[in-house]
Amino acid sequence: MRSIIEQYCKDLTAGRLTYGYDHSCRVYYYAKKLGDHYDDSILHAASFLYKIILGQNTKEDSALRAESILSEIGFPVEKIYLIKNIILNTDPEDRPETIEGKLIHDAII
C-alpha cells in the first residue's frame, strides 16, 4: 500500500517546484524523528497526501482526494477519517488532535 500511496503522490505532484514528492518524503522523515508511539501507516499516508492539490481550498480538496485514493486501495476506513482530519489541520494556527497530526504539523512548520 505504501508504494501505491507514494506513486499517487509522485504522479499528482509531478513537475512542481514546491510541495512535490521530495517535500512529502522530508515531511515523513522529520515527522518520524519528532516522536514515537504513533501509527506509521497513518503518518505515512498523511505525509504523502496532505498537499496533493494546490490552490484555493487546498486542505479540503486534498482531504477529499486522499479519501478517494485511500478508499480505492482498501485503506482501513477508520484510519481514512484520521488522515483527513490531519490534512485539514496542517496550517500553523491549527491544533491537531492526534499524535500523528501533531508530528506532521510540527514537521511542516
Short characterization:
By secondary structure, this protein is an all-alpha fold. 66% of the residues lie in helices and 0% in strands.
Q: Could you characterize the architecture of this molecule?
A:
66% of the residues lie in helices and 0% in strands. α2 runs antiparallel to α3, α3 crosses α5 and α5 packs parallel to α6. It is mainly alpha-helical. It is globular, with a radius of gyration of 12 Å. The mean pLDDT is 95.
Q: State the major sheet.
A: none
Q: How much beta, percentage-wise? A: under 5%
Shape: globular
Rg estimate, integer Å: 12 Å
Instruction: Report the count of strand segments.
Output: 0
Taken in chain order, the helices and strands follow as: HHHHHH
By DSSP (H or I, 4+ residues per run), the number of helices equals 6
Mean pLDDT: 95
Low-confidence stretches: none
Q: Percent of residues in helical segments?
A: 55-70%
**Protein structure class:** mainly alpha
* Distance between the ends: 27 Å
